[in-house]
């Protein structure tokens, strides 16, 4: 609210008649009591007569804040690009030579991640020029962490194809996540659940999750799903048509 009023005050000041307050006297600390009172009365009168100025000031503030945040995100993405786009430990699908690189930070207990999953798959299937990378980012408790550790371990034990199958299965799964339920889920995919369970203790599993959390921290990511598309950061669920529109816009800029 203070920022809103400050912006409105600035616009109102600029709109006041020149005779009211000299431009160099906008610093209230340089005015005497009478000048401050006159200035305040003039601003108040102007805002009461032109309340739309407050809305205009707030819209300008929002636009400038969005531009600042977008530029900050782009700078950070450029700084952490090797870990974001070139970490060989991360599972990926789509076209490895695609002109668009898309990264998703996900949690298997996140409802919006589950909602986005089918749409992301549809996006990749319908667009043969997207490289898609997954970042395990368990933030919703012990069940989330258990699921992520199991998924990463499946890649260590059985390779990328097994991880892809388990990733799909975990996103579709709606029950309680326990070691027993994960082993059972793996069995349905003809994977050795016990072997995967044992591989969860591999130090590489914990290290990858720790590195992903550090990466998320650098990008100010605190929720899932979060997408990085080229140099753009999207926090939260984005419907299929929104992702398609964004990718089309990015290609138009290339």
Q: Please, what is the CATH homologous superfamily of the largest domain? A: Glutaredoxin
Helix content: 55-70%
Cα-based radius of gyration, to the nearest Å: 26 Å
- Poorly predicted tracts of residues: 1-9, 11-25
CATH class of the largest domain: Alpha Beta
Distance between the termini: 39 Å
Total E-strand runs: 5
pLDDT averaged residue by residue? 88
Describe this protein's structure.
This protein has 2 domains: 2-78; 82-253, 3-Layer(aba) Sandwich (Glutaredoxin), CATH 3.40.30. The chain has a 5-stranded mixed β-sheet with strand order 1-3-2-4-5, sandwiched between helices. Residues 1-9 and 11-25 have low confidence and may be disordered. The longest helix has 28 residues, at 52-79. It starts with a helix and ends with a helix. The chain has helices at 2-15, 33-49, 52-79, 81-85, 111-126, 142-158, 160-172, 179-188, 193-199, 203-218, 240-253; strands at residues 92-94, 100-106, 130-136, 226-229, 232-235. The protein is built from 11 helices and 5 strands. Strand 2, helix 5 and strand 3 (130-136) form a beta-alpha-beta unit. It is elongated and about 80 Å long. It has 254 residues and is α+β, with helices and mostly antiparallel strands.
């Amino acid at each position: 609210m203070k920022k809103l009023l400050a912006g409105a005050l600035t616009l109102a000041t600029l709109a006041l008649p020149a005779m009211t307050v000299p431009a160099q006297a906008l610093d209230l600390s340089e005015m005497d009591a009478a000048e401050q009172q006159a200035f305040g009365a003039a601003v108040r009168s102007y805002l009461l007569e032109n309340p739309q100025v407050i809305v205009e000031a707030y819209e300008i503030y929002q636009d400038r804040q969005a531009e600042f945040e977008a530029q900050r995100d782009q700078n950070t993405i450029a700084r952490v690009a090797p870990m974001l786009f070139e970490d060989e430990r991360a599972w990926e699908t789509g076209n490895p030579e695609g002109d668009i690189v898309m990264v998703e930070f996900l949690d298997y207990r996140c409802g919006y991640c589950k909602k986005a999953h089918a749409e992301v798959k549809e996006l990749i299937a319908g667009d043969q020029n997207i490289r898609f990378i997954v970042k395990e980012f368990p933030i919703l408790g012990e069940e989330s962490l258990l699921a992520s550790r199991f998924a990463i371990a499946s890649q260590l034990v059985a390779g990328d194809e097994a991880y892809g199958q388990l990733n799909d299965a975990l996103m579709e799964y709606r029950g309680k996540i326990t070691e027993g339920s994960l082993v059972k889920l793996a069995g349905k995919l003809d994977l050795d659940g016990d072997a995967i369970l044992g591989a969860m203790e591999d130090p590489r599993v914990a290290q990858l999750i720790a590195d992903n959390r550090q990466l998320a921290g650098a990008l100010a990511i605190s929720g899932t799903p979060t997408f990085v598309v080229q140099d753009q950061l999207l926090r939260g669920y984005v419907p299929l048509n929104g992702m398609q529109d964004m990718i089309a816009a990015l290609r138009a800029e290339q």
